[in-house]
Design a protein that fits this description.
homodimer, alpha/beta, Rossmann fold, two-stranded antiparallel sheet, 11 strands, 36% strand, globular
Chain lengths: 191, 191
């Protein structure tokens, strides 16, 4: 998505440790109009798949998932990173290592929110080593729902997550794939 | 908002410890169409205030804030609960005690996302003891931005947060105010 690449070039900042900071529009300040444009593109890419539910993971996945859900007319279920007092009943649970935060989280989804026959689109803001996405895949497989694909705002093509998840047979569509980045340049993969 | 009261009666569950669970539409599974309806009502209530930014707090505030922002045409800034590796630069910081999670979080907003002249609407999913909202108020005051009001999906009228924040001179609009609740009944305050 050309508009996203241009936005990353204009507003993104590369931080030490291979971190691409896009807090100005994607995960601290939310450019809601642009999130809806990205959502429209996700809806277009997966328009013929019969998807009836989006699954994402807190926190930064929620806004882009909302953008897509508005255009697809489906609900969003977000996996929670730490079991909280208002989660009751049976849950699917897995562990996710965060690349950004350097920690391990228990990630849960209440069983009743993933139902037999669901056709699910996974959505997240970033795909780097793929740990969050693999956690969601593990939960969806345990629930027995169909995974129609994964839509990502920004994939770091130089990390292994995208390749590994595509090798699992899952369709991954990333709106922008960063091929390489340094302090003063970012290049994208042709799509 | 009558439709919200009806949805709470239909889908809400009262859990021990004065917890009202609305995970079916507000904070685990997101009913995106209904979140946009709530957002439209928030936009209507604050339509003449010149608001140029919504400020909320992760995680559960993000979806309702997005719903409002879409109708108001403004960006959302969400306060982060734990400083992460992709936060750089100067931050406003405060501590918030969570009623639901029974813990204390450091809450931060990068300084550059709150600018002189901003007219801010605070948005959150719940208002109980008001700790999260007071944290956002503290950050906004430190930043010197104007607080035009606070829009809440569900206020627990039997806890003290709403009264205290209104006593601070801040306009608080709650789409539904729960006056009392037991295992098998929920009553709302007339508005």
């Amino acid at each position: 998505m050309k508009a996203l690449e241009e936005k990353i070039l204009k507003e993104g900042v590369v931080l030490p440790g291979n971190i691409l900071k896009v807090g100005n529009f994607l995960n601290h300040r939310l450019d809601v109009g642009f999130l809806c444009e990205m959502g429209a593109e996700i809806a277009r890419l997966f328009r013929d798949c019969g998807i009836n539910k989006i699954v994402t993971i807190e926190t930064s996945g929620i806004a882009i998932a909302m953008g897509a859900a508005i255009h697809m007319g489906v609900p969003v279920v977000f996996a929670k990173k730490n079991k909280s007092k208002n989660v009751s009943g049976e849950v699917y649970c897995t562990e996710v290592v965060s690349f950004t935060h350097k920690n391990v989280s228990q990630v849960i989804v209440e069983k009743k929110y993933l139902e037999a026959g669901d056709k699910v689109l996974l959505v997240d803001d970033f795909l780097a080593n793929g740990m969050a996405l693999k956690g969601l895949i593990s939960i969806c497989r345990e629930a027995g729902v169909e995974i129609c694909g994964a839509a990502i705002a920004i994939e770091k093509g130089f990390q292994k997550g995208g390749e590994e998840i595509r090798a699992m047979g899952i369709r991954v569509e990333s709106l922008a794939i960063v091929e390489s980045m340094t302090d003063d340049s970012i290049t994208f993969r042709e799509q």
